[in-house]
Structures
1.
Amino acid sequence: MATAYGLVALIIDDHPFQRSYLKRILLKLSALEIYEAENGVEALSILKTAPKVDIIISDLDMPEMDGIEFMRHLASGYQSPSVIISSATESSLIASVEKMALEYGVKLLGIIDKPVDLKKLCLLFDKHHEKKAPRSALNNTFFDLKSILAAVDNDEFEPHFQPKVELATGRVVGCEALARWRHPEHGIVAPYAFIPLLETSKQIDELTIKMIKKSAEACKQWHEEGLIISVSVNLSLVSLTDTTIVDRITSMVKDVGLEPRYVTFEITETAAMTEVASSLEILTRLRMRGFGLSVDDYGTGYSSLKQLTRVPFSELKIDQGFVSGCSHNNTSGSIVESSVQMASKLNLCSVAEGVEALEEWDFLKAIKCDLAQGYLIARPMSNNNFTDFCKAAIKP
Ligand code: C2E
Ligand code: CA
Ligand code: CA
């Protein structure tokens, strides 16, 4: 369930309970950013300053400025988000609200009863995505190396965090930091549009350093709020040619005030099997300094046990290609199970990534896999939303 993935939402309701109820639902559906307003006046002032809002969920009957008047103002503004009306109003009124929205040119996705039903809300989000389909194709835009490097300099990249949950207890114990480009025109851009180019041109170091710094800072902030969570950052092996990088990373993390044991570096299995001595030296030194080391995409690289033990890994991340369908596909199921057993024998924490279905969760729990990560739990989300997600998860 992640139909609000990447969306910026605005909730308008005069009842704090209704707002927090909707906010919790949107977080579960992985909204990127959520704004809240008590009435239409407040909502309009948020729209003036907030980045592009994709969806508004608004009550109808509110003091100061009600939902009807709000829609009239919205139609004349420069933002044109989709609107969902959530209302306890009887159905006779609803037809006229729909007609009015149409006349104003407001993109009304639909009207739902309070309390909001999750399934109905998801259907309306699907309608939003259908309408937006041509725009999301922008995420396929080709970016050249020069503009990517300029964006790195301009600090347009930020980590989004996807929770890692302990299968035995359901607790959030860690997360993976995934790079997102907050592009001034195209919105949030996914890694495939910039990582490969940075890697092949061997110019990924600056992004790596910035990702580590921002992730460590976020992690320190969670600890200060009582959320003791670790963070994993992806490390490209082309970053590992410069042997001074270990000192740079270590002092950066320590300067933030975070112990290295709360930071793990993920290296893909294929990259980790390198024979390059300097890379092995760097990985070993990172582990010596107390950082965690994880074999990412395990199962795709045909590594032997001997090769795996050459680097002092602390975690094994089983590739989503095997996890997906592991509960009903015998081959994937066996691969996942033997990987978990091997991890346990080597004293490595086992992580299944790409967990999308409850049956997969049950299977992984039964074979005693340690951690799970995937859309079933949550999509990657902004730091604010991730923090709220963790706080909501620890509430009794
Ligand atoms: P990865 O390290 O294997 O990260 C996991 C990817 O799977 C992420 O894609 C995540 O959003 C996605 N994912 C998580 N759960 C599920 C699920 O249940 N189902 C499916 N289908 N996918 C799921 P994302 O964020 O697009 O990242 C893609 C890749 O880009 C990453 O793969 C990683 O290799 C690379 N990457 C991302 N950030 C960085 C970075 O800061 N540095 C480097 N070097 N690479 C990065
Ligand atoms: Ca990874
Ligand atoms: Ca992976």
2.
Amino acid sequence: MPKLIFHGHATCTLEAANGSRILVDPWFEGSPVADIGLDEVPDPDFIFCTHGHEDHFADAIPLARRSGATLVSTFEIVSFAQEQGIENAHPMHIGGGYDFPFGRVKMTPALHGGAVAGDESGRFTTVPGGFLFDLGGVRVYHAGDTALLTDMQLLRGAVDVALLPIGDNFTMGPEDAVRAVEFIEPQVVVPIHYNTFDLIRQDAEAFRADVGDRARVEVLEPGDSLEL
Ligand code: NI
Ligand code: MN
């Protein structure tokens, strides 16, 4: 059975039906909320990064180097990683899907910033994205950092579990996240990208109440897991 392990902020591990470990937006070193330290992260098979900001990408290159995991992100971020010596890397881009050994992943649009942490030249600036994972029947949407997008209506019927930012300030806040739930109509919503620091402090229980009977809201603390 596929499983989601939440590590805090936007970082999570997905365990696919075939046993693949998929790490999304790894940020352990320096994260105020991560459940484990970078040294304790089990070696993943794949590392997916929605965008290049430090709180989503900081540990991707060190973990890819240590584990040999395949790093998956936009063409520009993958090019940057390859320049840093990462050999196992898979470039994708917005709107494109690919059949990985564990299932299909499609890269979805996000409206946010595109700088790549560590790229001092600015040559690898990219558009940010999200990912729609099909983990052997369970479809998980990690929205990345984004504003509310009317494009999210296109995901209706395609998502079982939606990981949506609710932190406000840098991404959509709870009110827009409720509208995203209306657009997407997932069965389960996991709020992410909040309570990491003061600027994105939110009340997840109030968000749950506002979602009401539109979806089941699973409020996960860092270290919590959810059977999918
Ligand atoms: Ni960001
Ligand atoms: Mn972020």
